[in-house]
Amino acid sequence: MSASGTPRLALVALAALSLIWGYNWVVMKQVIQYVDPFDFSAIRTLLGAATLFLVLLVLRRPLSLVAARQVILLGVLQTAAFTALIQWALVSGGAGKTAVLVYTMPFWVIPMAWWVLGERVRGLQWAAIAIAGCGLVLVLQPWAMGGSAFGNLLAVAGGITWAASAVVAKRMRRDQAFDLLSLTAWQMLFGAIALCVLAALHPSRPIDPTPYFFGALAFNAVLATGLAWLLWLYVLQKLSTGMAGLSALGIPLIGALAGWIELGERPNAVEFTGMVLIVGALALISLWSLVQSRRAAG
Q1: 295 Cβ contact list (under 8 Å, min separation 6)
Q2: How far is CA 24 from CA 78, 96, 219, 228, in A?
Q3: What is the pLDDT of residues 6-49, one digit of tens each?
Q4: Of 74, 82, 108, 282, which is least packed with CB atoms within 10 Å of its CB?
Q5: d(Cα 10, Cα 71) in Å, to the nearest integer?
Q6: Distance CA 185, CA 121 (A)
Q7: Residues 6+ apart with CB under 8 A from 55
Q8: What Cα–Cα distance (Å) separates residue 171 from each residue in 1, 65, 118, 167, 262?
Q9: Computed from CA positions of residues 248, 253, 256, 259, in that sequence, does the dihedral angle turn out positive or negative?
Q10: Mean per-residue pLDDT, 185-208
């Protein structure tokens, strides 16, 4: 493969990753017609963990568990709490709006990393946080809280939990070397176990075993977990971290567009303005990361 062909293929992988993770917001929204959100969260993460361990065996990657306590904490945050919160948010919240609110995660990471890891927060990052904050207020509209207010708050909580897990993972990788795929598989397994306990304790309606239910499970286990993580690892190998981070920009956009087209979710003018501000701030952060990575490479 030519030098010019490799980045092009990585960009195709990045686009495929954004499509899979972006469209999955519609899948997760639709499937709760047939299954309790906590039951689906438990089953999808358990199947996802099994898929990742299968990938580890096929690729002959290390299976050893390193720093078990830290990995368990990461699993509880990144898989159990995050997955439960976003799936619960989708009960009353729209797929597109929930995706955008959850992807405020980078703006929560910046102050958390400053506080926990001592990372400097630069002027452009503060500007992006301010823009995203304005967008968040417009999307939530606290002056006109309706029936989806609880779902919106759950989505924001999901973004905050995701941010906390990112900081924990960064501190873990700073202190010790981890194989990324192996770490992902183990933390997902521990998170899935926690979700199974939650699902068992939470009273729920029986699962309606429709073709869509099984299709959603297959989509999450095979595409959104197994294939998507392979694509992500490939992208990280072939592209800069800043360029790879641009995938975070496409996912909520695709989620919002798919929700609009397939589910008829049309935000009002104020919500739409807020979503544009959040996505714009996310683009600002992504472009800043891309510039920084190119400067470091130069």
Answers
A1: none
A2: 17, 11, 8, 11
A3: 477 888 888 898 899 999 999 999 999 999 999 999 999 999 99
A4: 108
A5: 29
A6: 31
A7: 61, 181, 185, 226, 229, 230
A8: 36, 17, 11, 6, 40
A9: negative
A10: 94
Q: Higher model confidence: residue 236 or residue 231?
A: 231
Distances (CA, A) of 53 to 13, 32, 118, 232: 21, 27, 34, 16
Q: How far is CA 109 from CA 23, 112, 134, 170, 193, in A?
A: 24, 5, 17, 11, 26
| Widest CA span in the chain | 58
CA 2 to chain centre: 32
Q: Residue type for 261, please?
A: I
Distance of CA 80 to the CA centre of its chain: 13
CA distances from 38 to 3, 78, 92, 202, 290 (A): 46, 15, 14, 8, 37
Q: How far apart are CA 114 and CA 3, in angstroms?
A: 37
Amino acid at 33: Q
Structure tokens at 85: 């919160």
CA dihedral 256, 261, 266, 269 (to 10 degrees): 70
